[in-house]
Write a structure and sequence with these properties.
heterodimer, A: about 300 residues, alpha/beta, 6-stranded mixed β-sheet, 4-stranded antiparallel β-sheet, B: about 425 residues, two-stranded antiparallel sheet, elongated
Chain lengths: ~300, ~425
Amino acid sequence: MNDQAIRLSGVSKAFSGHQAVADLSLSVPRGSAFGLLGPNGAGKTTTLRMILNVLGPDSGTIEILGRPAGQDTRDRIGYMPEERGLYPRMVVEEQLLFFAELKGVPRKEAARRLAPWLERLGLAPWRQRKLNELSKGMQQKAQFIATVLHEPDILILDEPLSGLDPVGVNVMRDVFVDLRRQGKTVVLSSHQMETVERLCDAIALIHRGRKVLDGPVSEVRSRHGKNTLVLSYEGDGAFLAGLPGVLKVNDFGRYVEIKMGEGADAQAILREAAARLRVSRFEVVEPSLHDIFVQQVTASGEAAA
Amino acid sequence: MKRLATIARREYLERVRSKAFLVSTFLGPVLVAGFMLAPSILMERQRGKALRIVVVDATGTLREGVEQELRQQKVAGEPRFTVLPAEGGDVETARRAARGAVVEGRLDGYLYLAPDALATSKAEYFGKNVSNVMDLRLVEQSAESALTQHRLAEEGLDGARVKAVTRKLDLRTVRLTASGEREDRGASFILALMLLTLLYMTVPMWGAAIMNGVIEEKSNRVVEVIVSSIPTSYLFAGKLLGVGGAGLTQVSVWVLTMAGFGAYGAAAAGGMPMPEVSPLLMASFIVFFLLGYFLYGALYAGVGSAVNTQQEAQSLAFPVMMPMVLGFVFFPAVLGSPDSPFSVTLSLIPFFTPMLMFLRITAVTPPMWQIALSVGLTLATVIGVTWAASRVYRVGILMYGKRPTFPEMLRWIRESGG
């Protein structure tokens, strides 16, 4: 039994001269929550499309649940695109059955599975309504049912939280936790680092079609060291940027984030700050994925230049 | 294949359940029936109202002849004019009285023959309505005929005898077909024109329906979910078939209504001349609708996939429409001589076939081999066009941003192998 849900080996894809994905290798273990990170245009969507067998790679191999990507493997995947992917003027129930049928579930079977889902997500009263008569949150729920009704082993969610209001975010988070509990593999593609940081076990960061780094989130963060201070205070903190060992100060208003250079002494900075300000919070933290990302991308940009 | 059917089923139901479909499908036959009945109804309406007319004759010799001629003029079997006597003793009084009567609406018009009318061959008609060319022509004919008879009488010839000798020819037109002969006074021609107009309306209409469907799916990102489930070619083919099925349903309803109307309508219409609804005409209407639909529909789908909005689609859809517009330009030439080498050639060019071959079939019955050849050529073209369009489609639906140029789309056709 293969324990990898998705495995990409040396996958490349170019569109009329533009290298969208270059020599990309990834492994997503079964039952994990995996974050595919990268800025817009990094090659995330192309990678997802190859996993979904919408596009074929120019070179390299893609295996889904131990088999080469093809029609039967994609029946095992549920895909939720970044933007809403349902027919606005189609009746909810009809629509969900349609998408399940496209995944090879017989209509009767799909109808049998649909009823409990509609109940559970509170969509039952809306089943005969057209999608565009539903609120955004309801539409999101319908979209989600369309993604899971064929009971896939792998879920691929492209920017699942973008454009959601707080209620929608909560719905998605509950769903996410639920899927994890059922042992499904979830791949989450996003450029919102914070989302991924909170929800995923492991990540891969791609930039300009290449993998910049990957691994479990905790490992990635600790690998990049504890070089960040968070400080809350009252008073004029302008002098902080001039202290020895301080590379950069990001002022967030209520607190500042201080980047320290190699070998800087956090305690020395605290002493200096405490002497001149009323410090209400001081913390040495691991760098956020965002910081690591910016650092890596800048580094690879310099390397390329 | 089952999933292709799922796509086709959805497309079909979406179209067929729409209000626009129901309205046009069931209103279409009503309009058709209206067109078929219109000529007879128009005649019927004209029949009842004879024009009240007075002849004011200053020559003193022509009045009786003209009045008699006017009384004989008939439209749809009914006298067209009611000739009233002129009022007053002298010509001037009569003119003034007639003028007053026309203005007050007691009279529809009067004909004035000046004293020198016989010499100059000139007459004047004063009326409320001088735009009805048909009626004026009748007045003119009557005066002319009376004038001619008077001159002939002066030359010593019997007017009535001359009239009998020079009687106008009444041309009866009969359309000959394999199934026999049938009197036809233009009703069949009107029906053919109507069917052609329907073809011209429905093919682009259903083509545009596909295009808009494709654009909508693309802008909703529905297409991304679908092509992550099934091969793109299934979606393309399913769409083409589903929408085509809806189109076929519509034209079938129309054709059946027309056939029914042709069979039973004549009796209901009270012996009015009804156009011939031949099985060949109806069958070819459906066949050429389907050919036109698949030919242009595939192109429309390709165009729809390449753009992001319907506005963008307009400029790309224009070249797609061009052959159809051109076909319309050739319309009079083909109708004028449907069997000329020019017409035959045009009707065999696949992009014109759905319209022009159909037009030829309505005018004459072209040789079977020509029909078969045109259908064969068009089918081959449909296969080629569908293949190319599906390749544009497969790249286009996943492309957002700038609208591609035609050279770029050609590259998609060449390159979209994998």
